[in-house]
Amino acid sequence: MPAPSKATVLSSSDAVAHLASYQCLDGLSVKDLMDSRVHGGLTYNDFLMLPGKIDFPASDVITDTRITRNVVLRTPFMSSPMDTVTETDMAISLALLGGIGVIHHNQSPESQAAMVRAVKRHENGFIADPVVFSPNHTVADVLDIKARLGFCGIPITETGYLGAKLVGIVTSRDVQFESPETHLGDVMTTSLVTAPQGVTLTEANQILRSSKKGKLPIVDDQGRLTSLLARSDLLKNQNYPLASKNPNSKQLYAAAAVGTRPSDRERLKLLVEAGLDIVVLDSSQGNSVFQIDMIQWIKQTFPKLEVIAGNVVTREQAASLIAAGADALRVGMGSGSICITQEVMAVGRPQATAVFAVAEFASKFGIPVIADGGISNVGHIVKALSLGASAVMMGGLLAGTTEAPGEYFYHDGKRVKSYRGMGSLEAMEQGRPGASDQANGKPGSTKHAPRLSSKPHENAATTRYFSESSAVKVAQGVSGDVQDKGSVTAFIPYLHVGVQHSLQDIGVRSVSELQAGVKEGCVRFEVRTPSAQVEGGVHGLHSYTKRLYA
C-alpha cells in the first residue's frame, strides 16, 4: 500500500478536533446494542464496553447505589436468598462490607427470625433493645445467648427487662469457669460506668474509650436502663467503613425473603418484630395475583418496610408490580448457574436484555432494579450496572465461601461446598417429614439459629415455583458443588476494587455517572462474536494458573 501523500496527512495537533467529523462516537449506543430485532437476546458475555479516558485514580470511584426507594448501599453487592448461600454469617459479613445478604426462607419462621435478629444485634450505635437479664437468671442463660447471638456482655436489671433499674452487668470473664446453675446475681459486676440518657453518640463513644470498658449502659435520671453501647462496635466502625447501616438506628441493614402464600404473612410478622428492614418476595415468576396482593398487604400493614418484588424480565411484568407498590424489582428468570427454568419451562429471557428492558422502564418511576443471576465475574457486575441495574444479586459467585451455609468436603480432590438451586428436587424436599435438613447430605449451618425441633415447615422452593400442590414435582434447578473461594472478607473487597478499576477504564467516577453516560450515549458498547469471546479469554497456552486476587 503506497504511503499517503503529504496533502492527505492531517496535522497531529488536529487529531482530537477531527473526531467531530464523524457522525457518531465509536461503537454502539446501548439502544443499538439492545435492539433485539438485530442482535436477539443478549447475555453479559455477548458484548463489551469501550474504554474511555482515565484522569483519576481508581480509589476515587464511588460505588454507592440505591437498591430500593429509601435504602442506599456503599457497594452494589447482594447475596441470593438460597439455603446454600445466605444465612446469618453471610448476611452479617456482606452488611459489614457494604452490601446486603438476603436470608433464605427454606426454614421455619422462628429460625429465620432468629437470623434477622442476630444481624440487627451484630453492630449498633445505641442498642435500643439489648438482651437484658435479672439477677435470678443463670450462667447457662448467658452461655445460650453467646452460642446463638455471639456475645455475652449483658446488662442486669432488677426485673430482667429494659426500663428497670440497672443493678449490674455480666461479661465473659464473670461467667468463665462458673457452674451453669450459678445465679447471675452472684457473679455480676456491680461497679459500673454509665452515661445519662440524652448523651450523643460521639460523647458516649468518648466515655467508652476513656473507661476502657466493653459495654456502656445508658440510664435515665432514676438509674433505669434505656439502651446500651458496645466497644466492639467502635472497632467495627474503624474496620468496616463501608458497612450498610440504617442511618437512624446505626444498626446493620437486614433483609430476608418470604413467599406470597397466606402463611408467609405470619412469617413476615415475626421477621418485622426481629427488626427486618427489607423483604424480598421470592418467586420465579413475579407477575401473579399472589404477589400483587402480598405487596398491597405489606404496604398497608408495614408501610415503612421496603419491598423488593419479582422476579421479572419484561416491562409488562414490571408494570404490575410497580403499580402494586413495589420499592424495587428483582430481574432474572432462568439465568442462574443452577437454574434450568429456560430449558424446562421454555420461558425466561437472556439476562442482559432482561435487565436493560426492565431497568429502562422502571427508571421512569424511580424504581431501582436488581440484576439476579448470571453473574460470574467482575465484568458481569459492571455490565449489569451499565444496563441500569442498581445492584447485582449473587448466588453461585458467593457459594463455596466460608460464610455460606454448609460444611466443606472433598470431591475429586477439590475442597468444595454444596450448592443447589431453589428449584432443585433436593430443595423442594427440605422441611418435609423424614426429609434430611441438609444440602446434598452435607450438614447445613445452624450457627446463631435456635435449636428447634425438626417439625415440618412450608417449603420455600415449592411455593417459589407454584408447585406445592403438584403431585409430581418438576425440577427447575439442579444440585452440585462449588470450589472453596475462601472468606467473603477477602472476596468482596476484590469485587469492590475490581468494579472501581473497571469504571476507571470506562472513564466514569461513579455508578450514577456510568448510567448517565450510557443513557446519554457517551459510554459505548460493542457486540462480541463467538470468536471475539474466545480471543478475550485465556487462550493459546499449554497450561496456566488463574489467580484472581492476592
User: For the residues shown, what is the average pLDDT?
Assistant: 86
- The neighbouring-strand order within the major sheet is 4-5-11-12-13-14-15-16
- Computed Rg: 26 Å
The share of residues in extended strands comes to 5-15%
Distance between the termini: 48 Å
- Structural class call reads alpha/beta
Describe this structure in words.
By secondary structure, the protein is of the alpha/beta class. The chain contains 20 helices and 20 strands. The strands form 6 sheets. The chain has an 8-stranded parallel β-barrel, surrounded by 7 helices. Helix 11 links the parallel strand 12 (278-281) and strand 13 (306-312). It is globular and about 95 Å long. The two termini are 48 Å apart. Residues 433-455 have low confidence and may be disordered.
Question: In brief, what are we looking at here?
Answer:
The protein is α/β, with parallel strands linked by helices and 550 residues long.
Helix-strand layout with pairing:
Layout: H1 15-18, H2 30-33, H3 36-39, E1 47-49, E2 65-66, E3 72-73, E4 77-79, H4 88-96, E5 100-103, H5 109-122, H6 139-149, E6 154-157, E7 166-170, H7 172-175, E8 195-196, H8 201-211, E9 215-219, E10 225-230, H9 231-239, E11 255-258, H10 262-273, E12 278-281, H11 289-301, E13 306-312, H12 315-324, E14 328-331, H13 341-345, H14 351-362, E15 369-372, H15 378-386, E16 391-394, E17 409-411, E18 414-420, H16 425-428, H17 460-464, E19 479-483, H18 488-506, H19 511-520, E20 525-527, H20 530-535
Parallel strand pairs: 4-5, 4-16, 5-11, 8-9, 11-12, 12-13, 13-14, 14-15, 15-16
Antiparallel strand pairs: 1-20, 2-3, 6-7, 9-10, 17-18, 18-19
Helix pairs in contact: 5-10, 12-14, 15-18
